[in-house]
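REQUEST ID: PR-0412
SUBMITTED BY: lab tech R.K.
PRIORITY: routine
TASK: structure prediction, single protein chain
INPUT:
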Amino acid sequence: MSDTGTGAGSARSRLTVLSGPSGVGKSSVLAELRKQQPDVYFSVSATTRKPRPGEVDGVHYHFVDREKFQQMIDAGEFLEHAEFAGNCYGTPRKPVEEALAAGKPALLEIELQGARQVREAMPDAQLVMLMPPSWEHLVVRLTGRGTEDPAIVERRLAIAREELAAEKEFDEVVVNADVKSAAADLLSLMVGPRISGV
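STATUS: complete
OUTPUT:
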């Protein structure tokens, strides 16, 4: 197989999976990554939940009903899927494979359970965990909002502990102490190491 090496930064066409606990800043890092490298393919998940105000079908999610979602599972159309709070979420396989075939680096942002499923479906996928600078920093992020029931916050913290404990299952770790730096580190992992000495 030949690699023409054309396109933005001659990125390697490899699937990267980004996971990390709630409150670690995944959406902020991904928004910054889009600015730094618009050529990256960002997977759009399918979900059975109803759209929230401002959400656009096919942009934020592919909104489908439960019957359609089950048909997609039965047809093997998902790289991974899971159910949370009564709604189903899944990563469509075909668009990811098409992006990779076109030579684009592809990125999925999913939780731990989904990352494990992707590893089964695509063993050469690169798993990256986004970590907080410290546990204390994450606790402040999750409790500092002050708008949620303490029981919900405690449950989030328990899930975060479980997710951080799975760090050894991941290929790489990016620490989000600064959004721009974290996005640059993630991009470097996706498209290959930068030339040293810069």
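NOTES: The domain at 8-191 is CATH 3.40.50.300 (Rossmann fold).
REVIEWED BY: pending
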